[in-house]
Design goal:
Blueprint lengths: L7 H7 L4 H11 L4 E2 L7 E2 L2 H14 L9 E5 L8 H14 L4 E6 L4 H5 L8 H7 L25 H4 L10 E3 L6 H12 L5 H12 L13 E6 L5 H9 L2 E7 L5 H18 L4 E9 L4 H13 L4 E7 L2 H8 L6 H4 L4 H16 L5
Parallel strand pairs: 3-6, 3-7, 4-5, 4-6, 7-8, 8-9
Antiparallel strand pairs: 1-2
Helix pairs in contact: 1-2, 4-15, 9-10
Protein name: ParA family protein
Length: 358
């Protein structure tokens, strides 16, 4: 996917290192980086180059050895709290850390899919007519990876998208047809089977390299972006996850939504004797608003054990990201912004909570 090239200063910011270290890694790794054709022979990094350097650094540090694998779901009971924005940016930051990251869009609206440049509404004919690459068409979704899926099963390799190359985050897109999976899981429930186990068994077999259609054994992080509310797909993702990451809007009253989620997890644990660990993160934080501070105090007091020690302030950059045609998450489109800095800080805290960094 073609994007505007990055200069070494931006690459250093994205990789949380120095420009000298970036130049040294390029020389050591042999990664091919183009140079400006006129004027100073400045290196111009593609987005793929950045993720290649991130993977090279991780491998050099020994992250290619056996490590912990984590499955997490980004979920909020109601819409409008920044769930998909956090999922796309966190997944991208994880890959910038050199972690092999798979992001699975489970929301029929496919906002996350679109944020990475794939239009779920685009047909082959429309792409040809508009001169758009066929790679931007969504052919398969997560439902197509489920055993006995009515529309037919494909392999992960056929379904996955790689917007920034092999070393960047991998995406399983979504479209409206994902609703068929929810229908399938509903029938399973009606017939007296635990539909939640279907997704959990899929992940278990895939992580153990026992399912050739869904081999996810090489990934460090599998991140679901679940739809708001609660459907069968979301319930299955939650049951299959080690963690549920729930953004809490600090400019709205979110205590009822959090109480609902807490009850959902408690009921899941009572029924199946397992549930994901809850991690809550404050979003749209404005320390100058009295009500926001009251919301923060109340939430932290009630859900202190789950509260992530990092918050993200409201920023116009997030609103601009939704209308940006660069097909880049904010962390890549505005790496020097305050919003990007807070996203990195929150992602670091999240990785530490999930035990993926020391």
């Amino acid at each position: 996917m073609s994007t505007k090239p990055f200069k070494v200063q931006a690459v250093a910011r994205l990789l949380a290192t120095t420009t000298d270290t970036v130049r040294r890694m390029v020389d050591e790794s042999g990664i091919e980086v183009t140079r400006q054709e006129t004027g100073p022979r400045t290196r111009l990094f593609s987005v793929e180059n950045i993720f290649e350097l991130a993977r090279y650094r991780a491998n050099r540090r020994g992250r290619n050895t056996k490590k912990k694998q984590v499955v997490a779901t980004v979920y909020a009971p109601k819409d409008g709290v920044g769930k998909t924005t956090l999922a796309s940016n966190f997944g991208t930051i994880f890959a910038l850390k050199g972690l092999r990251t798979l992001i699975i869009d489970l929301d029929l609206k496919a906002s996350l899919t679109l944020s990475f440049g794939y239009d779920s509404e685009l047909t082959c004919e429309e792409a040809i007519e508009a001169g758009i690459s066929q790679t931007r068409i969504v052919e398969y979704h997560f439902g197509n990876l489920i055993p006995d899926y009515p529309a037919g099963r494909v392999t992960l390799e056929e379904a996955v998208k790689r917007p920034y190359g092999e070393c960047g985050p991998h995406i399983v897109p979504a479209d409206l047809n994902l609703d068929r999976l929810d229908t399938m899981l509903t029938y399973e429930t009606i017939e007296g089977r635990n539909a939640e186990h279907i997704l959990a068994n899929l992940l278990k077999e895939g992580l153990a390299k026992k399912d050739r259609h869904f081999d996810v054994s090489d990934y460090d992080v599998i991140l679901f972006d679940a739809a708001p509310g609660k459907n069968r797909i979301t319930s299955g993702a939650l049951f299959a996850s080690d963690y549920v990451v729930s953004p809490v809007s600090m400019e709205k009253f979110s205590t009822k939504a959090l109480s609902y989620l807490s009850n959902v997890l408690s009921e899941m644990h009572d029924q199946f004797e397992r549930s994901p660990e809850l991690i809550t993160i404050g979003n749209f934080f404005d320390p100058n608003r009295v009500r926001v501070l009251g919301q923060l105090i109340t939430t932290a007091r009630t859900y202190g054990g789950s509260w992530l020690d990092a918050s993200i302030r409201r920023s116009e950059d997030f609103a601009k990201e939704l209308t940006d045609e660069s097909n880049l998450p904010l962390i890549l489109s505005k790496p020097n912004s305050q919003a990007a800095a807070e996203l990195r800080q929150s992602a670091d805290a999240l990785l530490k909570r999930m035990g993926l960094v020391g």
